[in-house]
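Entry for coenzyme A complex. Fields follow.
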Amino acid sequence: MPERVITNDAMEKIVETSDEWITSRTGIRARHHAVEGEYTSTFATAAARLALSRANLKPEDLDLIICATVCPDQALPSTAVLIQSQLGAKKAAAFDLVAACSGFVYGLTVASQFISTGLYQNILVIGVEVLSRYVDFTDRTTCVLFGDGAGAAIVQRSTDANRGVLATRIQSDGDFAPVLYIPGGGTKIPASHDSVDGRQHFIKMKGNELFKVAVRSMEDTARQLLDEQKMTINDIDLFVPHQANQRITDAVAERLGVSLEKVYSNIAHTGNTSAASIPICLDELVESGRLTPGTTLLMTSFGAGVTWGGILMRW
Ligand code: COA
């Protein structure tokens, strides 16, 4: 995909920052930004095509498309139906799911319910964001963190009783809504000259407050999922947390006591891609041969809302 790689050196030319500051505070060295002509549905459709081909499915086999994003192509209609049209997935129902960085975990949780009831056989869950169109490139506290990307998964009923989703958990606390938000563009502050002049269409964040909640909620979720399955952290082969900040990942891993070689991190070259972060990790793990049938995988996420959640599964 021809998106642009924005290194920390390139960031130094945009805002007053340094490679040293960004690397030491976040672990991020580069992030990707969509180029002109690319937008959320084009990213998502590319990821979806890859997932379909790996699953040996045709677009018309899909029963449902869930697009987890906070970066829709446009306010109406949903990005999911635009993806449906680009794919030619005529039979599928399609909707967007807005849970910020937890979107993919929320989406997998919803999909696994439809599979459990037997209503649907083939569900496409996409996590996709083009946050570069929502970050304020005059705000160094946010613009260095976020990147663009997409990842997708096909959810089907497993024929092997030992494989699949073991436990899921999704939660939210709207009292934290003012900690990470975009004020403008909705019904409260519709687009106007004033809203644009006031930079109301960009992400606002209180990073310090989020940091603590992120660590606590991902740790709690992981413990709850493991307890529910009467498992310990030693039963896990791979821990894939949402990639928000390397220091958050390290803190959660340390509190859980998970050995470092089991913790997956790609934030150095992706930045925080919100709902796309976990599926991009899964794709890299599959590609590198680290995620193979039978692997016990723990995923945890955290994001604006605040929302958080986790999935314990055997791949
Ligand atoms: N470059 C250089 N300096 C920067 C900077 C940047 N890009 N961004 C902030 N600073 C400065 C601040 O202005 C502040 O300066 P001051 O002490 O003179 O006021 C100083 O660095 C420390 O800022 P602070 O916000 O306390 O840093 P931090 O250690 O908390 O790190 C975050 C900031 C954003 C990296 C960190 O809080 C974080 O990652 N939070 C979670 C954010 C997140 O994950 N959001 C998405 C949730 S899914």
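NOTE: The first helix runs from residue 8 to 12.
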